[in-house]
Amino acid sequence: MSVVSRRVLLAFLWLGFxxxxxxxxGYLAFGLGLFTATGYGYPKDLHIEDAGLGFRLRxxxxxxxxxxxxxxxxxxxxxxxxxxxxxxxxxxxxxRVVVLGDSVVFGSGVAAEGRFTEQLESHSDVASxxxxxxxxxxxxxxxxxxxxQAERDVPRxxxxxxxxxxxxxxxxxxDPSAGLGGLAPTDEAVGTFKAARRYVFRQTYGGRFxxxxxxxxxxxxxxxxxxxxxxxKWMRTGARKSxxxxxxxxxHSSRPSQPRAASRSGSSSSPSSTxxxxxxxxxxxxxxxxxxxxxxxxxxxxDNDASDGSCSP
Length: 313
Prior knowledge:
This protein has a 3-stranded parallel β-sheet. A two-stranded antiparallel ribbon has the order 1-2. Helices cover 37% and strands 10% of the residues. Strand 1 and strand 2 form a beta hairpin. The protein contains 11 helices and 7 strands. Helix 6 packs across helix 7. It has 2 domains: 89 residues, no CATH class; 152 residues, no CATH class. It starts with a helix and ends in an 11-residue tail after the last helix. The C terminus is likely disordered. By secondary structure, it is α/β, with parallel strands linked by helices.
């Protein structure tokens, strides 16, 4: 065997040893629970199968989001399997808004009190009218899920109005027979170099260990403002992608633009403006619109390490 051949063989053997060493270290780190995903994700046991919806949140769940920047944020579900306080019987004199939606309504990556449903309840106009908002948001839900919820779960809550937090990625095929498989995002990069890279750095212990170590070091070196920017990175990325996709679509379409939001009186004024006439309207005639960015995101956007593909909104 020539000198060059021996060197090539030794190089491959050394590379294999390093990879096996990283795989072993990663296995011990994740197996012992020393590390969790550094990107963003949901707890593995958060969802259960549901015959009508395919999947739903586990009732009485107690846990936290996954990821270095999010693992301190708790997730608590009530007796009905929704991330909200217990749904008690509606009290006399109270009016109730049921809010349906996907991860935006669910509040992915934020504390429950930071969601817009809680902010809506705390608004002086809403609070003075005795209105409560029940959050029925579930990540990965689509318009088909909302219809099933409206027929099966909503009536027993006796709402006066229903608010749907609708995003463009909610328009997709609804297949409840998929069960928990409906949580898995589609990977359009199968068979490509990108898919191979994802497998190495997300599915192998060694790759995940290197990503975790790098992300933890990077996050620890950030200032408080930079850490806050890290939290909202996926939102900004989603908004940019939404605007980019929207501009491409508008260049190939002659459809007239639709109004983004309407006020409670049905005019084009700001939703936050309130008049005495609007305050006297019955809740069933009230219109609440909150424009939300269309999310067209993949696992790379979330920089997620979760092996179960739980990074998608």
